[in-house]
Amino acid sequence: MIAIDYTQLQKELNVPKKIVIIPHKNPDGDAMGSTQGLCRFLKKSGHEALVISPNDYPSFLKWLPETDDVLIFEKNRKEAQKKIDDADFIFTLDFNHFSRCGDLETPLSKAKATFVMIDHHQQPDTYAKYTYSDVDMCSTCEMVYHFIENMNGLDTLDAEISTCLYTGIMTDTGSFRYRSTSSTTHRVIAQLIDAGADNTNIHESIYDTNTYSKLQLKGVALKNLKLLPEYRTAYISMSQKELDDHNFKKGDTEGFVNIGLSMQGYVFAIIFIENKQEGIIKMSFRSKGEFSVNEFARQHYNGGGHNNAAGGRSEISLDATIKEFLSILPQYKEALLNS
Ligand code: 5GP
Ligand code: MN
User: Fold this and answer.
1) Residue 68: per-residue pLDDT
2) Which of 84, 94, 133, 226 reaches 20 to 30 Å from 104, CA-CA?
3) How many angstroms is it from 250 CA to the middle of ligand 2?
4) CA trace torsion 4, 7, 10, 12 (10° rounding)
5) What is the Cα 317 distance to its own chain's centre?
6) Residue 326 to residues 233, 270, 292: CA-CA distances in angstroms?
């Protein structure tokens, strides 16, 4: 764990500052919940705060409070660049290396602002003056709660902030079931409900958002599921054509990787998703037990993440990517059988 010197930070934030807050590219529930929750907290504390996302985010997150103000870098490069140039502080949330921010990497590397990092991924970079890094935390949203607590700001918690933070804790813990979910997580959740987070409504807004074509796409994923029982591994592939045929929109494949991991006795699941526009195969890795998908993704796929959830990419074709993956897997047989 790396902690922030709160006395020092509070001194710096004693007067109103211009603050920009950045989530990672392709932001998920934790990235959007944490940035938007923190943004509202900082505004209520008297600062001028703004979330700039590297690219657009899925529609199932667009109901979150504060969403209207999010600036999308890919759509408003000039305005976003100016905000970054003028910022006194830049908070980076739910990632720990500028390379996770797509085209925002260069503007961030050149920024003169004071950086604050709040993140739970492994191997943090050292760009921030103030770093709060804890790989044992279930979510950045839980960390933002502790951050607000340490800034003596819990009295600012309202329904909007609580809704944002509840959302990210819920999505990053698979609704409070992954190993990273602690008793403290549940205590934080209780505080958020008391402060106005409507838990039933949040679950419905995130999870009950299926459309017919999205369910059909899930059917394709189920059909494409391949099992490798000798490695306790299951994988799914989705071609660009299969996505196009089902009116694919950002976020529609969210959670599909977990289908493989729900097989009894299986400890490693992968989804390969073809993205013709970016010329990549996006991969998501999930594991149970000791097998570290963070190490696996770093080693082979220019990626990373957490022990049990990580991402990566490949720049060869979908078929070639799967072939290569299958040729790598035998090296991990022992680790997978022991996980
Ligand atoms: P997902 O598979 O849902 O994209 O990502 C799983 C986890 O790994 C998330 O916490 C995400 O932030 C992280 N992650 C995804 N892709 C990458 C990557 O390329 N590099 C690193 N360091 N982390 C990633
Ligand atoms: Mn997260």
Assistant:
1) 74
2) 133
3) 18
4) -90
5) 26
6) 11, 11, 17
Q: Which atom of ligand 1 is nearest to the CA of 271?
A: 2
Pairing of strands 48-53, 233-238: unpaired
Residue by residue, DSSP assigns 68-104 as: GG-EETTT-HHHHHHHHHH-SEEEEES-SSGGGGGGG
The whole-angstrom separation of Cα 11 and Cα 6 is: 8
pLDDT along the chain (339 residues), means of 10: 98 98 97 98 98 95 88 98 98 98 97 98 97 98 98 98 98 96 98 98 96 96 98 98 96 96 97 97 97 98 96 98 98 96
Encoded tokens for 20: 């920009």
The rounded Å distance from CA 15 to ligand 1 centre is: 35
- Quick check: helix, strand or coil at residue 305? strand
Give 264: exposed, middle or buried? Use CB within 10 Å, 0-12, 13-18, 19+: exposed
Determine which residue's CA is closest to atom 22 belonging to ligand 1. Answer: 304
* Among 1, 312, 306, 267, residue whose Cα is nearest residue 139: 306
The pLDDT, as a whole number, for residue 260 is: 97
Atom 21 (ligand 1) nearest CA:
304
Any idea which ligand is nearest the CA of 300? Answer: 1
Give CA torsion, residues 35, 41, 45, 50, to 10 deg.
Answer: 30
Q: Would you state the pLDDT for residue 66?
A: 79
Name the H helices within 120-195.
Answer: 140-150, 159-172, 183-194
Query: Residue 235: its pLDDT value, please?
Result: 98
The pair of three-digit structure tokens given for residue 305, joined into one six-digit string: 């993440």
Residues lining ligand 1, Cβ inside 6 A: 24, 100, 121, 284, 303-306, 309-312
